[in-house]
Amino acid sequence: MRRLLTALCCLATALPALALDFRSVVVPAAVLYDAPSNKAKKLYLIRAQTPVEVVVRLEGWAKVRDAEGGLAWIEASQLTERRTVIVTAAGAELREAAADNAPLSASLAKWVVLDYVGTPAPGWVAVRHRDGLSGVVRATQVWGL
Predict the structure, then answer these.
(1) Cα dihedral 87, 77, 71, 44 in deg (nearest 10)
(2) What are the angstrom distances between the C-alpha of 37 and each of 19, 58, 59, 63, 72?
(3) Cα(125)–Cα(123) distance, integer angstroms
(4) First to last CA, the chain
(5) SS3 assignment, position 1
(6) Which pTM does this prediction carry?
(7) Pairing state of beta strands 104-108 and 134-138?
(8) Which tens digit of pLDDT belongs to each residue from 31-85?
């Protein structure tokens, strides 16, 4: 019993370390590398406002995961704390309220980037498009949460 209690306490203290750290790209286009160096192999470009998940930090660099699961290194200065999400479902539905029967505001194309506003209800995400359109989408239709 004592071992079980000790294990549970260790797990409870480790859980905050498992929190996801999402950021977005702040520069117009950022180069992602296969190692934390400007001399490393360039893998691809990522556009402004795209969300990434930071998985490792190392002296001015961040190893990030993109919406497709790819891992690469980016200069940490090219990331901001501003939260965005990216549509991963073709024809994601932007609704006026967090309900499947709420009026439809728009159908969103895959890879559209939206500002994260909040979580109004379980399974829903409040978002805003840069053109001013706002509403809620199903959390399963976006990545970056």
Answers:
(1) 80
(2) 26, 11, 10, 11, 11
(3) 7
(4) 36
(5) coil
(6) 0.81
(7) unpaired
(8) 999 999 999 999 999 999 999 999 999 999 999 999 999 999 999 999 999 999 9
